[in-house]
């Protein structure tokens, strides 16, 4: 069996956890501001902004993390 689907899933979960953790650590407004700044940069930065944008899963996980930390 190919291992790449599992590897891709692990990478996506890690990215989601990173995004949610950053959202909690620096706050939603600052997070959105930094992603907006990336959107104005080079093509690589724009790709990073697209990957790091706060999607519904990120926001839901960030809210759960906030509740756990309070």
Dominant shape: flat
Distance between the termini: 43 Å
How many helices? The count is 4
Instruction: Quickly give the structural class.
Output: mainly alpha
Q: Residue share in helices? A: over 70%
Radius of gyration: 14 Å
Please write the string of helix (H) and strand (E) elements.
Answer: HHHH
Profile the largest sheet. Answer: none
Mean pLDDT: 95
Strand content: under 5%
Tell me the total number of β-strands: 0
Q: Give the low-pLDDT segments.
A: none
Question: Any chance you could write out the topology, listing elements then pairs?
Answer:
Elements: H1 4-26, H2 28-39, H3 43-52, H4 56-69
Helix pairs in contact: 1-2, 1-4, 2-3
Structure description:
The protein has 70 residues and is an all-alpha fold. Helix content is 84%, strand content 0%. The protein has helices at 4-26, 28-39, 43-52, 56-69. Helix 1 (4-26) packs across helix 2 (28-39), helix 1 crosses helix 4 (56-69) and helix 2 packs antiparallel against helix 3 (43-52). The radius of gyration is 14 Å and the shape is flat. The model has no long low-confidence stretch (mean pLDDT 95).
Keywords:
70 residues, mainly alpha
Produce a short descriptive summary.
The protein has helices spanning 4-26, 28-39, 43-52, 56-69. The protein is mainly alpha-helical and 70 residues long.
């Amino acid at each position: 069996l190919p291992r790449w689907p599992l590897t891709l899933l692990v990478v996506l979960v890690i990215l989601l956890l990173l995004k949610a953790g950053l959202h909690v650590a620096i706050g939603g407004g600052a997070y959105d501001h930094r992603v907006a700044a990336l959107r104005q940069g080079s093509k690589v930065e724009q790709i990073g902004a697209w990957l790091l944008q706060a999607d519904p899963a990120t926001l839901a996980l960030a809210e759960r993390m906030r509740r756990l930390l309070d």
